[in-house]
Amino acid sequence: MSSPLFEKRAKGPWLGLNTNFPDPSFMKAADNRWYAFGTNGNGKRVQVAVSDDFKTWTLLDIDALPTLSTWETENDHWAPDVVMRDDGKYVMYYSGEAKSNLRHHCVGTAIADNPTGPYVPSNTPLSCRLDQGGSIDPSGFKDKDGTRYVVFKVDGNSIGHGGDCNNGLEPLVSTPILLQKVGADGITPIGDAIQILDRNTADGDGPLVEAPNLIIRGDVYFLFYSTHCFTDPAYDVRYATAESITGPYTKNNVPMINAQNTGLLSPGED
Fold first, then answer.
1. Using an 8 Å Cβ cutoff, are 241 and 220 in contact?
2. Which residue positions are annotated as catalytic (predicted)?
3. Measured between alpha carbons, how far is 230 from 242 in angstroms, rounded to an integer?
4. pTM of the model
5. What are the tens digits of pLDDT across the range 215-228?
6. Is 170 labeled as catalytic in the residue annotation?
């Protein structure tokens, strides 16, 4: 099954924040304001911006993750994503560099009373899979029945054999997207993670798929992801659809966001 997500009626991208703010995620908090969270930069591990209308954004002088867990280093806190729990607390998912295997990452979790933090990290990461390259790019999702999940990428290309994003030379390695069910607290895993997507050259994918994000519209699950390499002008955003959250997911192989339809260079990540 492949389904069109929407009619493209927007006039195109606009500049919301003129600063280095990579891998942004967005959420609307209990105060009815929008918050964006970005990869480390501007002297912060996790950057935060706020908006009242989703158009004009203000970068806050706040590090949302001021303290670290014992498993992670000071470096490379990537792709944070925040969800609000039913009890009103906020859970942050992020990628942190593992002390036990430098340059490879685990998915960490942290909890705060307010959307801007301070977020207090959990003692144990949600996923590491360091022997497979690590775990990165987490994103939280709450299904219609209230069940919570986290999707993330296994960073296989970090142990690839060179070339584009370290996975352009044979033998190519897998960079699967996994789905992990979690408890109502948003941090306790329930069962094992399952694979719901992977790179496939025949589908037009580049050396990886990454940056997964799930939504549901009606009874259809939409899994957004990026493919190609962030250093490649072809880096783009695509999506796949399924009738069940666990899949099977069918890719819509026409890019949803790319350089041609936005005028932006390498507009991947979502």
1. yes
2. 23, 210
3. 26
4. 0.94
5. 999 999 999 999 99
6. no
Q: Which two tokens stand for residue 31?
A: 């105060």
**One of 81, 205, 210, 270 is an active-site residue; which one?**
210
Beta strands in 118-219 (DSSP E): 120-121, 135-142, 148-154, 177-182, 194-197, 209-217
- Does the active-site annotation cover 97? no
Q: Is the dihedral of CA 201, 140, 75, 38 positive or negative?
A: positive
Query: Looking at the predicted structure, is the pLDDT value of residue 166 above 50?
Result: yes
Six-digit token string for 32: 């009815």
In tens, the pLDDT along 27-80 reads 999 999 999 999 999 999 999 999 999 999 999 999 999 999 999 999 999 999
Cis before 121 (ω within 30): no
What domains appear along the chain, each with residue ranges and CATH number? Answer: 25-262 (2.115.10.20)
Q: Are strands 236-242 and 220-227 parallel, antiparallel or unpaired?
A: antiparallel
pLDDT band of residue 10 (cuts 50, 70, 90) is low
